[in-house]
Amino acid sequence: MATAKTTKSNETKNTGSATAKKTVKPANKTAKKSTTNTAKNTSVAEEKKKILFVASESTPFIATGGLAEVIGSLSKALASSDKFDVRVVIPLYSDIKKEYRDKFTYLGNLYVHLAWRNQYCGIFTYVKDGVTFYFIDNEFYFKRPGCYGYYDDGERFAFFSRSVLEIMPFLNFYPDVMHCHDWQSALSAIYLKTNYCFREEYQFIRALFTIHNIEYQGQYSLDLLCDLFDIFGEYRYLVEYKNSINLMKGAIECCERFSTVSPRYAEEIKNAYYAHGLEDIVRKNEFKLCGILNGIDDLSYNCELDSHLFANYKPDDFSNKAVCKKELQNMLNLPQNSETPIISMVSRLVSHKGLDLVTNVIEELLQEDVQVIILGTGDASFEGYFMELAKRYPDKISANIVFNGDLSRKIYSGSDIFLMPSKSEPCGLSQMIACRYGTIPVVRETGGLFDSIKPLHNGYTFANYNAHDMLYVLRQAIFDYKNKEEWSKLMYRAATTDFSWSHSAKEYESLYLDMLK
Ligand code: GLC
C-alpha cells in the first residue's frame, strides 16, 4: 500500500490505498485562468507548452522494459529545455520501490465513472529532474505483483486511461499535447476524442500516440465494448477491427499524430511482415505518422561514471575494460583468457529477439575461440535450451536466466561483441548501451537497429533473417577482433556515437510545436 507522508493508513473502505476525502478540490485553487486552454490561445507564445505523458511504466519508479526507460529519460530531456512543462502519469503499482513511495505526496482523490463502475482514484505526486510525476492509486487494480499479465488488464488500463482525463480538472492541468504510449494508454486518446473534447477545457488538447511495439495492441472481445470500455454505438467503428476491439487501432484513428520509436520502424509497420495485422490502418493514417529514434540516458550509461562496473574507463583509454572482462569471467566461472572474445546477449528470451537464429548456429559458433554470455528471462523453451547448453559447454557459455540490472551493466562493459539479431525491433536500446561501453554490436538491419548501427562505423549488420548470414558476420567480427589497432578505433567510434536525447528530443519538440499550429 502507498505510504505517502500525508496518508496515515488504509483507514477507509475504498479500493485505494490513500485516505479518502469526501470533497474534491483542485490542487491549485489559485491557478490563474490563463492556464486553461481557452485562455491559453491568446498568450500561447510566452507560455511553456504543457506536455502530459501517459504511460504504464517509467524509470526510476517501475520498469519492465525499454518503454519505462524512454518515458523516464525523454521526459527529463524535454523538461531540461525551458519550452515545456512536462508531466507524466502512471499507475501506482505496489511494486513501485518503497524508497520512492515514501517520498510521494498525496494530493487527494476522486471517483472515476466507467460504464456502471465508479472507482476510487487517489492521486499522488513527486517531482524528479524537473518532471512532475502523477501516480494513479487504486488498490483493486494496481496492488498486485508486476504490471501486466492479469485477466482484467483491459479493465485496469481502461480505468487508468479514464482517470488521466478525470484528474485534469482536479489538477487544473490541461495539457497542450497529451502524449500516450502503447496500448495501455490508447484509451486516453480515444476517450479524449469521443467524449471529452466536447467540453471547453479539453477541446484544444492534441493527442500524440507513440507505438513502442505494434505486437501488443490491446485486443478484446466486442462484447466488452459498452460494459467495460464504455464506448457506445456511434464510436464503435473507431475501435472495431477484424471482429474485435483493438485499442491501438482506435488510438491511431483518434490521435492527431502517431509515431514510432525509429524512422525505419515507421516504414516497416506499413507492411504485413511487421504490422501484426495493423498494416491497413497504418497505411490509411500514414499522413500523420513519423518515426523518431529513441535516445538513452547517457549519464546513466557512462563507462567513466557507472558505479556498477568492476572498473571505469574512458573511450580514449580502454585499458580498464580488460579489468571488467577479467572480473566478469571470474564472476561467471569462465576461463580468464583476455584474448578470447566474449559475445554477449542481454535480452528477453523470446522469438522476435532472433533467438531461433542463435539456437540454430550456436554450436557452430562455439567451435570458434569464443565465450558466450546470455542474460535474460523469457520463453521456457529458450531458458531451458541455454541452461542445458551451458552444462555441456561450461568453459564457453554462461547462461544467466534472471533479470539483473547490475549484472547487465557488468556484461555490457566486460564483453567485446554484443549480439542482437532481432526479427523486428521498434528501436532497441541495448545496442546503444553496448556501444556506450565500447562493446561492438552485431545486429540485424531492422527498425532502430538499422537506424543506430552503421556497418564498420560502430558495429556489424546483416540484412536477411538468416542464421548463417548472422554467423558469417559474427565470424567477421571475431576475425577483426584480433586486429587490436583497428578494433580499438571501432570501439572508440562506437563509444562516442551520440545516442543522447539531444537530437531526438528536438525532433519531439518540433513535432509538438507542429501539432499546436
Ligand atoms: C519496446 C520495443 C523496443 C524499444 C522500447 C522503447 O520495448 O520493443 O524496441 O526500444 O519499446 O521504445
Topology:
Elements: H1 37-43, E1 49-54, H2 66-79, E2 84-91, H3 98-101, E3 105-114, E4 117-128, E5 131-137, H4 139-142, H5 153-171, E6 177-181, H6 186-194, E7 206-211, E8 219-220, H7 224-227, H8 236-239, E9 240-241, E10 244-246, H9 247-254, E11 257-260, H10 263-268, H11 272-275, H12 279-284, E12 289-291, H13 319-331, E13 342-346, H14 355-365, E14 371-375, H15 380-392, E15 397-400, H16 405-414, E16 417-420, H17 430-436, E17 440-444, H18 447-452, E18 460-462, H19 467-481, H20 484-495, H21 502-515
Parallel strand pairs: 1-2, 1-6, 2-5, 6-7, 7-11, 11-12, 13-14, 13-16, 14-15, 16-17, 17-18
Antiparallel strand pairs: 3-4, 4-5, 8-10, 9-10
Helix pairs in contact: 5-6, 6-9, 13-16, 14-19
Bound molecules: alpha-D-glucopyranose (GLC).
Alpha-D-glucopyranose is lined by residues 65-67, 70, 212-213, 261, 294, 425-429, 448.
Summarize the structure.
This protein is of the alpha/beta class.
Helix fraction bin: 25-40%
Strand order of the largest sheet: 3-4-5-2-1-6-7-11-12
Task: Give the class from helix and strand content and strand pairing.
Answer: alpha/beta
Rg over alpha carbons = 24 Å
Unreliable spans = 1-42
Strand content: 15-25%
Number of strands: 18
Number of helices: 21
Kindly state the mean pLDDT as a whole number? 92
- Describe the global form: globular
Say which molecules are bound, naming each kind only once: alpha-D-glucopyranose
In whole angstroms, how far apart are the ends? Answer: 43 Å
Report the biggest beta sheet as strand number plus sense, adding barrel if it closes: 9 strands, mixed
